[in-house]
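As agreed, record passed on underneath.
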Amino acid sequence: MDIGAETQKPAAGCEWRTPASMVLVQLFITGMILLSKLSISGGIFIFALLAYRSLFGAAVILPLALIFERGKWKEMGWHATGWIFLNAFIGYAVPMSLYCYGLRDTTPSYAVIFVNLIPLATFILSLVFRMETLRIWSVVGSLKIAGVLFSVGGTMLISLYKGKALHLWDPILKIHPKEQTAEGASNQLRGTIFLVGSSFAYACWYLIQSKVLKVYPYKYWSSMVTCFVGGFQTALVGIILNTDKNAWKLGWNLDLVTILYSGALATAGKYCLNSWAVAKRGPTYPPMFNPLSVVFTILLDSIIIGNEITVGSLLGTTMVLVGLYTFLWAKSKEVRDK
């Protein structure tokens, strides 16, 4: 009895590591959003931020590829290279550009909602392109529809209704929010359009990701080259839009911290922990923790930057979380039934 108990202790003791790693991933995402907002508000050129971040992420992933997938770069032919180029464009250059411009016009606690709508956008596009069928009259089909409606309704509530502001604490920093003028409303609408576009661009990336892994199944090399190519794509667009050398200069300031943090933790760290969790618990496990980034961002956005928590934002966020969990539960049940 004692020997059996001792052999089971290590396995039981490891149970906390998988959920803890997923919580850490959501903290990485939260930090990236908050730091990006501070850098963008400070005037950094968005395409410079994206290019440097992606190239640094590639440099961080490269040692992992050399260690765990030694020599596999030789198997990357022109066909795989073409798909990875498309992967970088749809999976990084387009969605991150739209997301950062949307973040510029809104707040971190508002923008993070759209990160969590990516699974729903993927589902909608899957239906449009007939990659997935919807059994409306089944329990699973009804729950998926209910999840989509709740999440979309929650997003609209956050956008259209503010309600009473809850002054719970004094912020560490104070970024003056946009006044409720016609220009402020216009910026909010423009930012929302950018964020919606970003969610659907990411959804397109998820749909082609399976093809990339089929033609080149080595995840570390694929991720490294995707980051490398994505960095050059955003740099090329940035040079076309802004030829001023000062826009590309980096100093020992918050912008450098944002780039290093985003590349090391929000890119390489997130990828490694997600891959490990998928191997342990399956592909539906990591997305279940996505709503935590909403909670973390709303709290830290208010504590650090000083954006107000309102009744409307709390109600809308609750609707999004309920809708997302309903959808993901129905999706996981559908996968298990198959």
User: Anything to note?
Assistant: Residues 182-215 form the longest helix (34 residues). The CA atoms of residues 47 and 241 lie 9 Å apart. Strands lie at 165-166, 309-310.
